[in-house]
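Problem statement: downstream parser choked on a complex file, so we are re-checking the raw output for the iron/sulfur cluster run. The parser issue turned out to be on our end (a line-ending mismatch), but while we're here, posting the original submission so the record is complete.
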Amino acid sequence: MDPPITIPHREDLRRLLTLWYKQHRRMLPWRMTKDPYAIWVSEVMLQQTQVKTVIPYYLSFLDRFPDVESLARSNIQDVLKAWEGLGYYGRAHNLHSAAQIIINEHSSRLPAIWKQICRLPGIGDYIAAAILSIAFNQAYPVVDGNVKRVLSRLLQIEIPVNRSSSHKHFYRVMQELLDSRHPGQFNQAMMELGALVCKPGQPLCPQCPLLLNCQSYQNGTVTDYPKRERSRPTPQYRIVIGVVRKDGRILITRRKAKGLLGGMWEFPGGKIKAGETPEAACIREIKEEVNLTVKIDSFLTHVKHAYTHFKIHAEVFICNYSTGAIRLRGPVDYRWIALDEIDQYPLPKANHKFIPFLIKELQKRMKLPALRGGASR
Ligand code: SF4
């Protein structure tokens, strides 16, 4: 059995933190509501994404899908379009699937019971605790990176925050510290302190309400915390992307629903093999993915993009269709679209980085504002 955790000055810490939060919290749109659906959407969006990025997405998403019914009844492509640019598209798929389960099995209400809410797609311990504490005032602690950092410095916790087994320890500490009368407020206060004062780089200790009870501050060891294990460097891949042109249209393909960028549309392409030129890789990838033979027309641009676990450096080519009929291997759908239709499809951020160059280049060649007309297969 794990030894009990004792937190010195626990009542003082709760009181001071709560007081500070009431005076200094940001008036974020999801803090103006008690609607469990809106809180759920905000918590899903805030996973892996910064507050300032989330705000416009949150507002327009709720405008487009104001309740669980409207989300459940919508087409997944519309949900992905609303999510476009926010990344981690599995979150949008899960939100949509969970909304359908909620209307079918929970009378269109987000369940307020731990076991039930955790069975919904995309709702793990963190989001469940956030929803249940904030929307339903249930005493579940939340533990994210901000909370771990604050606890680590406050109590001089020696366990590395990035070791996966450390989560259990930080959870138990938070359980002990949580104000069970106002759990939602307390959870948000801890996260807010981490975001505004006990920041990742240089914490703003003179502004901190917990300064007198902070062990690392009192011992002059703030910069030693949080402890971290050295992580492996992020792999980088060189890839190619091909914009295939045929009869004034360009080819886009849709990824399968599961996995990285699930259900999104994109241009064909893939990794450059050892010893291969980018041009040869582009021709090969297009042949392998969609069975078309193409000729390289010209180089368009370079694109760099970082995903969670790897980075890409892409070379983008404009290609001309030569021969072949489309046969998909990997993608699940395709369209030949006119340039001005590109906005109708949800595309990953890496594609958006070169689309302005593509539009400029193709419009210059066509000497037209844009080609118009319906997408074709
Ligand atoms: Fe963080 Fe400094 Fe406050 Fe301690 S005193 S919790 S290190 S901001």
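For whoever reads this later: The domain at 10-224 is CATH 1.10.340.30 (Endonuclease III; domain 1).
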